[in-house]
């Protein structure tokens, strides 16, 4: 089955880096990446609105959905497809009261227990558990491991994505946990733009070999709009 593939953006510090990022978002969307999470926690509101608006425009005409990290106000202002929440963010149920139909809401969790708790509160479309492996983006975080990822998948009915240290050689093992897909920063940031379709193809192949806990058609449709 096709995995849900999520690209998380790496921080940009200049107009030139932002232009390069928009080119990468465009290429990723055309390559078949389902979710593109705009994660720029250092940006003030006006700059983030500009970048997010450009990202939404870059994904137009593709199946990719643009999610804004934490900033529900920015997501709504630019017409993004959804938001990705963290532990300190507003509750997903409250977001639902102001979000339009079809708005995608994800949430980061760090253990199966946390995943089960927030899933039971309602309002979410998916969970993202990590860091599964060691990762340079969060060097002080102790990896949760594949066992925790599998336990989270078993504990909830929501799709669960693994994040942290995702590399092509690890994706078969990630797929074996029963997760719906994966998210990554460095995998997409370090790959040449012209090779992004290859990354998507390799990831799809890794998940296509999975037998247990295969996703049904209803889950396969949720990333598209």
Description of the molecule:
The chain is an alpha/beta fold. It has a single domain (4-216), classed as Alpha-Beta Barrel (TIM Barrel), CATH 3.20.20. It contains ten helices and eight strands. It has an eight-stranded parallel barrel, surrounded by six helices. Helix 1 (15-31) crosses helix 9. The longest helix is centred in the first third of the chain and has 17 residues, at 15-31. The chain starts with a strand and ends with a helix. The relative contact order is 0.16.
Mean pLDDT: 92
Tally the helices. 10
What order do the strands of the largest sheet run in, or round the barrel if closed?
A: 1-2-3-4-5-6-7-8
Overall, the morphology is globular
Identify the CATH homologous superfamily. Aldolase class I
Helix amount, in percent?
40-55%
Major beta-sheet overview: 8 strands, parallel, barrel
In short:
With 225 residues, the protein is of the alpha/beta class. The chain has helices at residues 15-31, 45-59, 72-78, 92-96, 112-121, 145-155, 171-175, 186-189, 196-208, 217-221; strands at 4-8, 35-38, 65-69, 82-85, 104-109, 126-129, 160-163, 181-184.
Give short descriptive properties of this protein:
TIM Barrel; alpha/beta; eight-stranded parallel beta barrel; 8 strands; single chain; 41% helix; 225 residues; 10 helices; globular
């Amino acid at each position: 089955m096709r995995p849900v593939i999520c690209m998380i953006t790496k921080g940009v510090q200049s107009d030139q880096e932002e232009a390069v990022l928009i080119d990468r978002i465009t290429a990723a969307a055309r390559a078949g990446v389902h979710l593109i999470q705009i994660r720029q926690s250092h940006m003030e509101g006006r700059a983030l609105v500009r970048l997010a608006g450009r990202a939404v425009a870059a994904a137009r005409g593709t199946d990719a959905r643009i999610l804004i990290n934490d900033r529900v106000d920015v997501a709504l202002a630019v017409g993004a497809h959804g938001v990705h929440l963290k532990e300190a963010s507003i509750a997903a149920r409250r977001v639902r009261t102001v979000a339009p139909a079809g708005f995608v809401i994800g949430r980061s969790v760090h253990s199966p227990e946390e995943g089960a708790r927030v899933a039971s509160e309602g309002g979410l479309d998916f969970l993202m558990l990590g860091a599964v492996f060691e990762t340079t983006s969060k060097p002080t975080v102790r990896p949760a491991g594949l066992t925790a990822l599998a336990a989270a998948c078993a504990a909830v009915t929501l799709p669960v994505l693994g994040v942290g240290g995702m590399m092509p050689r690890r994706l078969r093992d990630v797929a074996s946990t029963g997760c719906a897909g994966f998210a990554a920063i460095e995998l997409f940031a370090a790959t040449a733009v012209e090779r992004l379709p290859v990354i998507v193809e390799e990831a799809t192949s890794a998940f296509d070999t999975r037998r247990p806990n295969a996703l049904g058609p209803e889950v396969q449709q949720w990333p598209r709009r």
